[in-house]
Design a protein that fits this description.
Elements (H helix, E strand, L loop, with lengths): L14 E6 L4 E8 L3 H14 L9 E7 L16
Antiparallel strand pairs: 1-2, 2-3
């Protein structure tokens, strides 16, 4: 993944990366805000509903289980499967 802050001058790539490590998973969401319309839609949704309710406006770059640490006594519990 290449994310340079929230955009670099001259490249035209502006967005908000979100890393979510809840529910035994790692998820990387990218909210593209490169146009005024996309920025306004994203900010309005996140402000009103919170980012978790706005993932339809984002691109999922990663969604996979977090592997428990070797020898972790919690291995096999439902939250790690």
């Amino acid at each position: 993944f290449r994310v340079a802050g929230f955009g670099m001058e001259g490249c035209g790539n502006f967005g908000m990366p979100i890393i979510d490590t809840t529910e035994g998973r790692v998820r990387f969401w990218y909210f593209d805000t490169s146009s005024d319309d996309m920025f306004n839609k994203t900010i309005a949704c996140v402000t009103q509903k919170g980012w978790r309710s706005c993932t339809s406006l984002a691109t999922s770059w990663l969604d996979q289980p977090i592997a428990p640490k070797f020898g972790d006594s919690n291995a096999g519990h439902p939250e790690f499967i």
